[in-house]
Amino acid sequence: MATTKQLGHVLVTGGAGLLGNNIVKLLRDRKVCSKLTVLDIKKPRDPFTDVDYKIADITDYDSLLALFKTLNVDAVIHTASPPSFLHSDAIFYKVNVEGTQSMVRASQETGVKAFVYTSSASVIHDTISDLINADETYPLIMGKDQPQYYSTTKAEAELYVLAANRTQAHPSFLTAAIRPSAMFGEGDIQACPPICTAYYQGQAKFQLGSNENLFDWTEISNVAHAHHLAVAALTITYERIKNGQPAPLDHEKVDGEAFIITNDTPTYFWDFPRSLWRELGHKGRAGETGDTPRHYNHVSHRTGVDLLVDPERTQLDTTACDIYLLHSILQHLKGKDEAWL
């Protein structure tokens, strides 16, 4: 890993949450920032001693701008969002849309170079239709076609972020979006806890359907890795443009683009809960819905760790293709003499 500080001062919103905290940990471990700042509505229970924590409301533009003017931030990773299970349309819109708009504007007005937004893979899903080998060419689903208002607000915010890339008013402000699919990992409060609760309530012997639907889960460190790749690529692009070099071609650029991130290991949906239930002690018999004769793909919370330790690794068995794409673009942009990861 590189020991220099290529990314400069990086600010992570939502740094007290699962994804934000993992991004902060990853950037610390890789020693790629001159300074790390977390902006959230509260501090995490176990803050890092070498990270600066700021308490702020991202929907209050005036106070946010005043704070940004004191920080001299180079790059922003914007993960802050209410959980999708909150069921409050007003909060979804206020935080996801208005909060993101405030973050973009404050970043533009204070000379931030790179802005990476955490979107969601749900922005292309209507909750009904099958998504088979879906990619970024699929249209965003919003409004009356989107039953989940959370996803509508994430899509609207994503559009705003990407539209802010290299504008006439702010030509050196570069943006990208990361769309994770079904995140899970150590410390998560959305995926694993309900599955464990079902086990403790005696529901591990029941399933809906024949377990033939594939589902893309994404281990949290893979998502953090993707955010690092994106912000590094934006930073390199900024330096290229500043130094008078041509901007990346369409097929190699990251700025202005969205990337779907998964483990690249689609799993039969019920196999994931069963893998957790086994760890909790479930003993299903062959033929029961709690266990089937089919070979299981055991999903570990350490999925993808080898690639994260060695980003030069080309094997794609545990990490999403778009992580590989981002890394390939990054290698192409930086040349061979400089280690950015």
From TrEMBL:
One of its GO terms (molecular function) is oxidoreductase activity, acting on the CH-OH group of donors, NAD or NADP as acceptor. Coiled coil: none annotated. One of its GO terms (biological process) is steroid biosynthetic process. Residues 11-284 form the 3-beta hydroxysteroid dehydrogenase/isomerase domain. It comes from the Eukaryota. PANTHER family: DTDP-D-GLUCOSE 4,6-DEHYDRATASE-RELATED. This is 3-beta hydroxysteroid dehydrogenase/isomerase domain-containing protein.
